[in-house]
Specification:
Number of strands: 4
Helix content: 40-55%
Oligomer: single chain
Strand content: 15-25%
Strand order of the largest sheet: 1-2-3-4
Shape: globular
Radius of gyration: 13 Å
Largest sheet: 4 strands, parallel
Structural class: alpha/beta
Number of helices: 5
């Protein structure tokens, strides 16, 4: 049997009101979860307020081993040129439904 992967959708509200890094790294340690098997799904709207701070947070989570997926990118008026770089697309899985 292959590896089991779990996707967790993080709401914009939780992204701003919860220490996402501390929460997910703590849960991974507590329950012995390999962060490579956990995909954190975040919408574009969740990262647009305080963009630089949010990108640093995403990088910390990615460096810890979590897979980051950004949903609904470039779909609304939140379109952001900093998110268009090839480097960004290589680091994060982008869904533009």
């Amino acid at each position: 049997m292959g590896h089991l992967h779990l996707s967790v959708n993080i709401s914009p509200k939780d992204f701003y009101n919860v220490d996402i890094y501390k929460t997910f790294t703590g849960l991974a340690q507590k329950y012995g979860i390999d962060p490579r098997n956990l995909k954190l799904e975040i919408t574009e709207t969740a990262i647009m307020e305080g963009l630089i701070r949010q990108l640093i947070l995403l990088e910390l989570l990615r460096n810890y081993g979590f897979e980051i997926e950004i949903d609904d990118i470039f779909q609304g008026y939140y379109y952001s040129k900093p998110l268009m770089s090839n480097d960004f697309e290589e680091k994060y899985h982008i869904n533009s439904y």
